[in-house]
Amino acid sequence: xxxxxxTTMLLLIALVFALVSGGAYAFFFVAMKDKTDATAELxxxxxxxxxxxxxxxxxxxxxxxESANIDEISRYFIKESEIAVFAKKLEDLGxxxxxxxxxxxxxxxxTEKSVPFxxxxxxxxxxxxxxxxxxxxxxNFPGKFEWKTVRLTRDASLQKxxxxxxxxxxxxxxxxxxxxxx
Length: 182
Known about the structure:
Elements: H1 6-74, E1 78-79, H2 83-91, H3 93-97, E2 100-110, E3 116-127, H4 128-139, E4 145-154, E5 167-176, E6 179-180
């Protein structure tokens, strides 16, 4: 075997050094790429969580700010558990208007599209001006009513002794559209 000369030896050392340097570069490149991918994934999760937290905080703040408005609006809805209170408020319109008022039926139901409603049949008797006042009070009653039928008849059998004004009877069939099932 011939002794390796100095140039060949330097060439082999340079080649080994280049291979080791290339391998180290490839190793560190792959390691950095994996770390970068893991960091990007962690950053994406962090941004997602902070986004959820931000939306949640915003929603809570909005609910706190709008709770007074929500309470104000919910007062205009008749809840199933508050039907008795609603009926009492309607019956109180009788003395306010000067009529003798009674609620004959109060039936909750659902439309074809499963929208809840409350059907009412109200009967009242009194002088015409009092009946007119009752109708005005019902029109301005807080809530949304669909007026189905209003039947107004003069009833001579109800006329009070000594009274010159004739007695009138009104039957009102309404549907409360602001009824909410719980």
